[in-house]
Design a protein that fits this description.
- By secondary structure, the chain is of the alpha/beta class.
- It has two domains: 110 residues, Rossmann fold (3-Layer(aba) Sandwich); 61 residues, no CATH class.
- Helix content is 46%, strand content 14%.
- Helix 2 links the parallel strand 2 and strand 3.
- Helix 5 packs parallel to helix 8.
């Protein structure tokens, strides 16, 4: 099966996770980080999930799954240790559903993810080998260090400044492309974030402001 890759905005959206164990915990924490409003359906919770419940960071339905628990969900994740329950969740889901480690019952699969500030790299093996996806993720984490995320955050600011002070479209495009080149990536790794930021700021200052109010 071939999957269509997509990045979803789940901020403020209801996501239901059925299960309260270690796997469910990892899913819940990732969903919370993305801003989802998470409901966990499970008789028991891990200590970490219990703490999140106490902080009212998640909603907890403290029993086994029942039909109707998924009402109004934007996404559903089935992560219990009982295959029959996971299958019921998949059948009942009114929205995209992920059944952990059972791709044939999923309408979407969760990739292995590398995060570096604004940068998100998602790796999927199409469900063939989640373990290998994890291996690739660890390799990419070594290749793309925290400095990449720092530079991307800086570039967001530079782009706004360039739009404000460089009205010549060609000069502006050349600047932004140069600051996103392979050479810059090499300098990040060899010279460091501070050096690359200083160089970029100098280039921007050399461009004579051409916009007038």
């Amino acid at each position: 099966m071939n999957y269509y890759p997509a990045f979803l905005d789940i901020s403020g959206k209801k996501v239901v996770v059925v299960g309260g164990g270690a796997i469910a915990e990892r899913k819940v924490l990732a969903l919370m980080k993305a801003g989802a409003v998470v409901t966990v359906v499970s008789p028991v919770l891990t200590p970490r999930l219990s703490r999140e419940k106490e902080k009212k960071a998640i909603r907890h339905i403290g029993r086994g799954y029942r039909k109707g628990d998924l009402k109004g969900s934007f996404l559903v994740i089935a992560a219990t240790d009982t295959p029959a329950v996971n299958s019921r969740v998949a059948r009942d889901a009114p929205s995209p559903v992920n059944v952990v480690d059972v791709p044939k019952e999923c309408t979407f699969i969760a990739p292995s993810v590398v995060r570096r500030g604004p940068l998100t790299i998602a790796i999927s093996t199409g469900g063939k080998s989640p373990a290998f996806a994890g291996t690739l993720r660890r390799e990419l984490e070594r290749i793309y260090g925290p400095e990449v995320g720092g530079y991307l955050t800086f570039m967001g600011t530079v782009r706004k400044k360039a739009l404000a002070v460089v009205c010549d479209r060609k000069r502006r495009e050349r600047l932004l492309k140069d600051l996103a080149s392979e050479q810059v990536l090499h300098l990040l790794r060899t010279k460091g974030l501070a050096y690359v930021i200083t160089t970029a700021e100098e280039r921007l200052r050399k461009l004579t402001p051409s916009c007038r109010s």
